[in-house]
Every structure is written in structure tokens, then in C-alpha cells.
UniProtKB/TrEMBL annotation:
InterPro entries from the UniProt entry: Aminoglycoside_PTrfase, Aminotrans_3, Kinase-like_dom_sf, PyrdxlP-dep_Trfase, PyrdxlP-dep_Trfase_major, PyrdxlP-dep_Trfase_small
Designated name of the protein: 4-aminobutyrate aminotransferase
UniProt-listed PANTHER family: ALANINE--GLYOXYLATE AMINOTRANSFERASE 2-LIKE, PTHR45688
Family as reported in the entry's similarity comment: Belongs to the class-III pyridoxal-phosphate-dependent aminotransferase family.
NCBIfam families: PRK06149.1
Gene3D superfamilies, per database record: 3.90.1200.10, Aspartate Aminotransferase, domain 1, Type I PLP-dependent aspartate aminotransferase-like (Major domain)
Transcription among keywords: no
Gene Ontology MF term list: pyridoxal phosphate binding; transaminase activity
Domain Aminoglycoside phosphotransferase positions: 51-266
């Protein structure tokens, strides 16, 4: 996309030239005559060059890209581009580079009818521009590529770099001034010029300190090629189109790469941060480069628009030019949506380069009439205990939560209440929103118990902003009061003079900023809060209060976790939010974002259920010990649990987790039968203990699962009716084969002790087993003297809606049932229920004991879970909401071919993603990207299945219709963004 050269051409002096008039037939002849390639030539989009994809005749093999240069380019420029490409290819082996392919004469440049032609190496994989939305991994990859190119070109020199290009940010202001007249709308012209002037002023402040070198100048989404990575993601690793190579400011490489991100659906200014971090990690940015980066992004977007407007007039038939216009305007809108200084501060903070703010001095405290010790600081953060004890649980959702907390503090003796500066306020967060809310305050709020007068903190100019606003502007800082009654008519005040009256029991806002700083909104979104807070200061010292020590730079919790917590215990998401509060089917982060929880089947009743909390609190004040003592709770809970199961399941063992429960179930089968062999289903997961890991065959959890099974574990085919070897009317053959395998084991002298299976196929995303499957397999295993084990750890307790237990859906009664997760609503409680005969047979192994399994606390919580399930009709809710949710997801599949099917029933669902509904190729990479994008939109969802291509949809059973619709709407949006 080059527009200029040294030899007689300057975009400031004469217009750019249109793309060469070369047809596909012409390109085909050139490829055959000069490169010996007989085949097809397909035109590709370009702004000023003419590009063709060359395929070898009769095959799908792509030989290269035939590039016919714009007449504005000289041969020496092309030589520089080719030399740079070969240098990067040699010094950065991780990158694929579009180096030139010599013609028949061995030359890299061919002259045809006065035009300069090259055949460049074709890089398969597609570019990032093919993706409508760019996730953080792709954006980081773009920054990584830009850094590697910049690193490789450091020190590179060539006479062909001596160029004047409209894409060079050194000339950006001149380009806009020269070409903005081609933009037809006067208002748009004014906006472009204003943004350019502001950006250029910031750049000129540091221009003398910006390093210069050879720069590709077009590392964008259109010129970076991707390859599939080992983790299923598409990693940018290839670079094409060196047409804009020049010598300019080195940071231009990153600025241009970052600007291209803003043209994609769903991105915003902070979306560039992964690219900036990745670039900085390989090629550290100087302080001047950090300050110039965002202004260059703004300038780049303006240049693209005015250049495109000029080129559209010059070459109106060039569809590539006209198609870019909307995307370029989107880039400009995003680049100018945040003030330059604010976004620069965001970048600086994200790189850990932000300097601590200077202290704000004050001559006289504004709260001169109130003793500091009589002022209460109100904690409104997501971690605050105030929400728990002031009123009903979930009170953060109440619109008057802050007023109620302030009144309580005043009732307890406070003379005044103030909020915290820069601390996210949970009460402002909507429960369901696809966009993070403005929850971070750039000032503080003041609630006086009695009316009081606020005085000027320093000598300064008085600026009124209406009937309820007044500002005192000093030499270095200014303070603004809102929600007050100004009491001075003077144009200036001295420190200590009355300034404004604050009414009793009403909020007044106090904001402080350095002189000349951008005026910050009262509340800002967490993503840009570091930038806005850089334009503000904590007002507490101005009020006469000590700075709030609770407000400090956030630490990298993930890094701390990795240092002390074994990393094999993985966490969700690449950059996970810090979750410190939950309520019902919501999870709240410390940044003040509320997420819809669609995966937490552990908390069957919902997070922070008040009856569970009350039960735990009461019991802990009484007793918590082990089950060898005689107390009522263990008896009552065991009776209650056994009563939920059919005969002869009447005897209970209590443990701490699902892994322990299923492990004990296996041991019971081995002891009762005196055998050592077990039969398990493939693609299943049962736990982490030695026994449960042995029968777990999910390659998603353990890639070597099948190859590392001990010899006493025998696996049967997973009865996957969607993508397995038997489908449709043939699904009954799964049971037939399992039966035959069990009988064969017995015939070989190794009859199994038992068969363990999830009642609903959990790892496959809640897929129901084929009808009558368990009836046939249970009969077979019992026929050879073995026992049937139902793993109900995930599905038990009414999640299916129509059945309390998963095995009921199959019309069977197992010999042993293992259950956990739902039993304690997040508290560690698991159980095994079996017959008295099987339980007594376990005495051959000695005695059984679990220190906290069956403790008074565990049992009290277990009993409360049963009560709440009944009282809130959560099993019925699984029928109602689960049915609605599945219908909506299935309807979504009618519009989005990526959805292969929707598994499950009730609130145990799985949305399986495929690239092709005929071949059922798993959409693993897409599913991972969908989950990351859904997090942006306020939904926590994760992949499951051996191909990690199923959205496991197992929310708390209290979820409502509104939230189910929110989930589907968010998924619809993500799928509509293009995959």
C-alpha cells in the first residue's frame, strides 16, 4: 500500500497513481512466461498495487502471489523490500516471510511493459483480517510479530529506504492537511483535523527522543498470516507485503499494528493492550515511545480515512478501497473515544511504567468543622462485608444500597461518611450486562450527618458550574464540589474561607485533579480506570483525611498463585478476572464486573445462599468434629440421603469429594466381589485419586489416559450418539458391544467386579446415554457376578429436572451410587450409598473413616441443601428454565452452522461446536475463542469433551429465564461476529 518514492514522486506535490490496469489473463501470461508457472491467476484486493494469487494448472497448489507494483515505485525500493524480507527470514526463524521467488533469469524483479513485477512466496493459513473479532491471543500474536520484525530490522540500511510515504507518521499531519478535502462531509473533516492536531502536538513533544530505524510499516491484520498452534489457537507467524518499508520512528511498527485491531467487531481501545505487552516483552519500549504510541494510533486512523477518500476519487472502480471505508471509520471512532492522555496512561499502567501520583498538599482541610476520627470510610467494593451484614443477602443489587449503608454509619455515631477513591463500587454493577459498567469513581462522595460548610483548601480562583457545583482552581490543583450549594460570590478565595454548604444526609461529590488535566467523568469503566485515575487525585487529604491505604496498585494475583500453588492446578482463562464474591447464579470480580455463571454445577442452590451461610455459622458456633462421636446430624443426614434413593440402597458412607466417593465405590465393588477388574466407559472422567484416575479415560483431562490404564481397567466404547461410530438407529449396538465385552472378560477368567459409568455422559457435555443402555449393561455385569456403579457426582440432585437422579432416566437401580458437588453447595461433602450387604462386605478391608466426612458441619449443610431444593422447587426450575434454554439454543443452531447439536436435558446441557456438520470436524479453536469472548460479554462458560469443543452449560439450578436468555443472546452475538 505504498504511495510515494524519492525519485520524482512526492504525495504532497502530486496525486497518487491508480493501481496498474492488469487483468487476470495478463497475470496468467506473466506467470507462465517469466516464472514458468502454467496455471490460474486470481485477483486479490489492494489499494494501489495489483496482486494475484497464482495456482499451478490442474491443481490446488498455490505457487505464490504475483505483485505488480504501482508505477509510483522504483526498482531500488523493491530491492530494499526484498532484502529486508530475506533478512527477517534469516534472523527470525519463527516467522514465515513472503520472500521473492526468482524468475527464469534468476532476477527477483521482472519488468513487463514498463511495470515492475515480482512473484512472492505464498504463505498458507489466511490473515487476521479474515476474523471479524480478534481475541486477546490473536492481538498478542500481532504484537509479537511486530516486535520480531522490528528487532530483525534494527541496523538494516538500504538506499531504497530513503522515501517519502504518506503512511510514515512523520508526515501524518501533512497528509491529513493535504488530503482531508477529499472527505465530503464537513463535520467529518473537522473531526479528522481536530484529532490530527491533538495527536500531532503530543507526538512533537517527544519526537526528538524517538528511535529511528527501518520499519515494515504495515504489520496489520491484513499482512500477518496465521498458523494453527499446538493448543488449537491460530498463531500469527507470517508476514507479507513489504511495500511500505521505510526508515522512520521505530514505534510506528507497533502503532500501525495496534491501529488495525480497532477495525474489528467488538474491539475497543484497551483491546490493543495484549499487542503492546507482547511487543514490549521482546522489544522494550522507551518512555518517549510509550507517550507517542496512542497519538500515532489516532494519526494512523485519520491518515487511512483521508488517503482512502483520495484513492476512491482517483480509482472509483477499486472495490478494495471502498470496502475499507467503514472499517477505517470504526478505527477512528475507537481511537478517539478515549482522550489521548488517558489512553497513554492506560498503556503506561498496563506495562508497569506508571509513576506514583504526587501528593496533593492542602493549606486548610475542607472538613474543618469535623474531626477526622468522626469520619467513617464506607467500603463499597466487591469484597466489602458491609453488604452481608447491613441487610438482606444480595443487597448490592438494591438501588439504595449506598444510602442505606451511609445511614447505618451515621446511626452508629459517624459525623460524616466518605467513600473511597478509585475503588470499584459493587452497588453500581448491573447483574446482567454485555459491557462492563462505569463503577470506578474518580473522586469521593461525602454524606454529612448534619449540614456543614466546606471551606477552600487553598488560595485560588472560584469557578461556578451551576447551582450545585463550584470549583477552586489553585496553582497546581483544582477541587470541584458537586451536589452542594455555593456560598461565595467572589471570583477568588483564600484558604479557609467558606466555599459551599453540604446538606445533611445527602451525597456531595468531591473531585481533585492536577491543573490542566483532562476532566474525568465521576465514574469510569474498570478497563480504562488507570488512565482516568491518572488525571485525578485522591480528595481525602484535601478534606483533611489521611490517604486511603486500601487503595494501592493491584498485584498480579496469577503470578503469586503460580509461585505458591502448583501450576498443574490450572485456572480458567488466559487472564482470569479475580472473583471474590458470588450471589445466586452471578459471580463478581474485584473490578466490579458481574458475570453470569453458566458452569458452576457445584453450587446447585446458587452462590452465597443465606440458608447455607446461616446453617454453617450456627453449627460452627456449636460443634464440628468427626463422625466417631455420637451426634444427631450424621444420623439425620444419612437417613435423609438414603430416603432419596430406591431400595435396596439404604446404607451411607460420607466423604469429602466426588473423587473420594467414586474411589470408595470402586473399593466397595472390589471388596464385595473379591475381584480386581473393573469396566469403565471411554471419554469419561471420575476423579483424581488413584482408583478414579485409573477408570478415567478422558483425553481432555489426561492426553495419555488410554495408554496409561492399569491392566485391571477395561474400557468399553463411549456411546456417543452424535459423533461416535454408531448413530441414529444403530446406537443400540453400543450396549450390545459392551455386553459382549463383559461376557468375554468373564469367559477369559477375569469377570469384572463392577461397571462404573456416569448416568448422563458428562464429559460429552451432558449427552444422554442411548435408551436402555444401562439396563442392558447393568444386567450383563450382574450376570457375571459384578456390581453396577452410578457416578452421580455431576448430575445428581435434580439437575435433569424430570429426574432427581440421572440413573432414573435410564429406568435402572444401581448397586452403588457416588455423589458429591451438589450435596454441599460448594462445601466439601460427598457420599456413597449402597445396600447393607455390600457395605458389610467392606469389613474385609478393615474399617473405614474420613476425618471430616460426616462432620456435624457437613451434615448440617447437607440437610439444608435438601430443604432448599424442596422449598425453592429447584428441580422444577430445572425443567422450566432448562427446557426454555435448550429450545433457544437449538433455535440458535438453525442460524449458526458452527453449532452441531445441543446435548442434554434440564440444566445439564452441552452445545457442541463443529466446523462441518457432515464431517463433524470439532471446532476446538473456535470453542476456546468463544469462551474468551463470552467472558468479555459477561458470561463465564468453559469447553469440555475430548475435543474441547462443547460449551458445558451447567449453571446453578436457581438460574432464571432472563439470565438464560442473556446467555443465549451473548452466544448469538459471538457467533455472529464471524468464525
Amino acid at each position: 500500500m505504498t504511495a510515494g518514492r524519492t525519485a520524482g514522486f512526492n504525495f504532497l506535490e502530486q496525486p497518487a497513481l491508480p493501481a496498474p490496469q492488469v487483468s487476470e489473463a495478463d497475470a496468467q501470461r506473466i506467470a507462465a512466461t517469466h516464472y514458468g508457472v502454467e496455471g490460474d491467476a486470481v485477483s486479490l484486493g489492494s489499494q494501489q498495487d495489483k496482486n494475484f494469487l497464482v495456482r499451478r494448472g490442474g491443481t490446488a497448489e498455490v505457487v505464490g502471489v504475483l505483485k505488480v507494483a504501482n508505477p509510483a515505485f522504483s526498482e531500488v525500493e523493491l530491492a530494499a523490500q526484498d532484502a529486508a524480507a530475506k533478512l527477517i527470514a534469516d534472523t527470525e526463524p519463527e516467522l514465515r516471510i513472503a520472500v521473492p521467488v526468482p524468475n527464469r533469469a534468476g532476477a527477483e524483479v521482472t519488468t513487463v511493459d514498463g511495470l515492475l513485477v515480482r512473484l512472492l512466496r505464498y504463505l498458507p493459513g489466511g490473515t487476521l483480517i479474515d476474523a471479524d473479532h480478534l481475541g486477546p491471543a490473536a492481538v498478542a500474536g500481532l504484537g509479537d510479530v511486530a516486535a520480531r520484525v522490528s528487532r530483525a530490522l534494527t541496523g538494516f540500511d538500504h538506499e531504497g529506504l530513503d522515501r517519502v510515504l504518506q503512511w510514515d507518521p512523520r508526515y501524518g499531519a501533512d497528509v491529513v492537511a493535504a488530503l482531508v478535502g477529499h472527505v465530503g462531509d464537513p463535520a467529518q473533516r473537522e473531526r479528522l483535523q481536530t484529532a490530527t492536531d491533538e495527536a500531532w502536538e503530543r507526538i512533537t513533544r517527544v519526537a526528538g527522543d524517538l528511535p529511528r530505524q527501518a520499519v515494515h510499516l504495515d504489520i496489520t491484520d491484513a499482512n500477518v498470516v496465521v498458523s494453527p498452534a499446538a493448543d488449537g489457537s491460530r498463531r500469527p507467524d507470517g508476514v507479507i507485503d513489504f511495500g511500505d518499508l521505510t526508515n522512520t520512528w521505530a514505534v510506528s511498527e507497533l502503532a500501525i499494528a495496534a491501529s488495525s485491531v480497532l477495525g474489528h467487531t467488538g474491539t475497543e481501545p484497551v483491546s490493543i493492550l495484549p499487542a503492546v505487552r507482547a511487543f514490549h516483552a521482546l522489544r522494550p519500549l522507551t518512555a518517549a515511545e510509550v507517550d507517542a504510541l496512542w497519538p500515532m494510533v489516532v494519526l494512523r486512523t485519520a491518515v487511512l480515512i483521508v488517503s482512502g477518500a483520495q484513492q476512491a476519487q482517483l480509482d472509483p472502480d477499486n472495490a478494495y478501497v471502498t470496502e475499507q471505508s467503514d472499517g477505517e471509520w470504526r478505527m477512528f471512532e475507537q481511537a478517539t473515544s478515549v482522550p489521548v492522555d488517558v489512553m497513554t496512561a492506560v498503556i503506561r499502567a498496563d506495562l508497569g511504567l506508571a509513576a506514583p501520583p504526587a501528593d496533593v498538599g492542602t493549606t486548610v482541610p475542607m472538613l474543618a468543622a469535623v474531626a477526622p476520627e468522626d469520619v467513617v470510610t464506607l467500603d463499597l467494593s466487591p469484597t466489602s462485608d458491609a453488604y452481608d451484614f447491613a441487610f438482606t443477602p444480595g443487597g448490592w443489587l438494591q438501588s439504595d444500597v449506598e444510602d442505606r449503608l451511609a445511614r447505618d454509619a451515621v446511626r452508629d455515631g459517624a459525623a460524616a461518611v466518605v467513600t473511597r477513591f478509585g475503588q470499584p463500587r459493587l452497588g453500581l454493577a448491573p447483574a446482567l450486562s454485555q459491557r462492563s459498567a462505569e463503577v470506578v469513581p474518580t473522586g469521593v462522595r461525602l454524606w454529612p450527618a448534619q449540614a456543614l460548610t466546606l471551606v477552600a483548601p487553598w488560595d485560588g480562583e472560584v469557578v461556578t458550574g451551576g447551582a450545585d457545583t463550584v470549583t477552586v482552581r489553585g496553582d497546581a490543583y483544582e477541587v470541584t464540589l458537586t451536589g452542594v450549594r455555593p456560598v461565595t460570590a467572589a471570583a477568588a478565595v483564600r484558604a479557609g474561607e467558606p466555599l459551599a454548604d453540604a446538606a445533611a444526609a445527602q451525597w456531595a461529590d468531591v473531585a481533585v485533579r492536577p491543573a490542566g488535566a483532562v476532566v474525568a467523568p465521576p465514574l469510569v469503566r474498570p478497563e480504562v480506570a488507570p488512565g482516568w485515575l491518572g488525571q485525578a487525585r485522591d480528595p481525602r487529604p484535601v478534606l483533611g483525611l489521611a490517604p486511603d491505604v486500601a487503595v494501592s496498585p493491584t498485584t498480579d494475583l496469577v503470578a503469586r498463585r503460580d509461585r505458591s500453588f502448583a501450576p498443574v492446578q490450572e485456572h480458567y482463562y488466559r487472564r482470569p478476572p479475580q472473583i471474590e464474591r458470588g450471589w445466586r447464579h452471578y459471580l463478581m470480580s474485584t473490578a466490579g464486573r458481574c458475570y453470569l455463571d453458566m458452569v458452576n454445577n457445584v453450587t446447585v442452590l446458587g452462590h452465597a445462599h443465606p440458608r447455607i451461610a446461616d446453617t454453617a455459622s450456627r453449627q460452627l458456633r456449636k460443634l464440628n468434629t468427626n463422625s466417631r462421636f455420637n451426634y444427631a446430624a450424621v444420623v439425620e443426614y444419612s437417613e435423609r440421603l438414603a430416603a432419596e434413593l430406591p431400595d435396596p440402597l439404604d446404607t451411607v458412607f460420607l466423604v469429602n469429594s466426588g473423587s473420594e466417593a467414586s474411589d470408595l465405590a470402586i473399593r466397595l465393588a472390589l471388596a464385595a466381589t473379591g475381584r480386581r477388574d473393573m469396566v469403565a466407559m471411554r471419554e469419561a472422567y471420575h476423579g483424581w485419586t488413584y482408583g478414579t484416575d485409573a477408570v478415567s479415560t478422558s483425553t481432555a483431562d489426561n492426553p495419555n489416559a488410554l495408554a496409561t490404564r492399569p491392566d485391571w481397567v477395561h474400557t468399553v466404547e463411549s456411546p456417543n450418539s452424535f459423533r461416535g461410530k454408531y448413530r441414529g438407529p444403530d446406537v443400540g449396538r453400543y450396549a450390545e458391544e459392551a455386553v459382549a465385552q463383559i461376557e468375554r472378560l468373564a469367559a477369559d477368567g477375569r469377570p469384572p467386579a463392577g461397571f462404573i459409568c456416569e448416568s448422563v455422559y458428562g464429559n460429552a457435555g451432558g449427552m444422554a446415554l442411548p435408551d436402555c443402555y444401562l439396563q442392558q449393561v447393568y444386567a450383563a455385569v450382574r450376570g457375571v457376578g459384578g456390581l453396577a456403579i452410578a457416578d452421580e457426582v455431576q448430575v445428581g440432585y435434580g439437575r435433569l429436572g424430570h429426574w432427581f437422579w440421572g440413573f432414573e432416566q435410564q429406568g435402572v437401580v444401581p448397586d452403588i451410587v457416588s455423589v458429591a458437588k451438589s450435596t454441599g453447595n460448594g462445601y466439601p461433602l460427598g457420599a456413597v450409598i449402597t445396600s447393607r450387604a455390600v457395605a458389610e462386605a467392606f469389613r474385609s478391608q478393615g474399617y473405614f473413616f474420613s476425618s471430616t466426612g460426616g462432620s456435624p458441619l457437613s451434615c448440617a449443610i447437607g440437610l439444608t441443601v435438601f430443604d432448599v431444593l424442596r422449598d425453592e422447587d429447584l428441580q422444577g426450575n430445572a425443567v422450566r428454565v432448562g427446557g426454555h434454554l435448550k429450545r433457544r439454543l437449538e433455535a440458535l443452531g438453525d442460524r449458526h452452522p458452527l453449532i452441531g447439536t445441543v446435548h442434554g436435558i434440564g440444566l445439564y446441557l452441552g452445545v457442541e461446536m463443529v466446523r462441518d456438520r457432515q464431517t463433524l470436524e470439532p471446532a476446538t479453536e473456535e470453542t476456546a475463542a468463544i469462551c474468551e469472548r463470552m467472558l468479555d460479554l459477561g458470561v463465564i462458560i468453559q469447553p469440555t469433551g475430548d475435543h474441547s469443543n462443547i460449551l458445558k452449560t451447567k449453571p446453578p439450578l436457581c438460574i432464571d429465564i432472563e439470565s438464560a436468555d442473556f446467555y443465549v443472546d451473548a452466544l448469538d452475538r459471538v457467533l455472529s461476529e464471524g468464525w
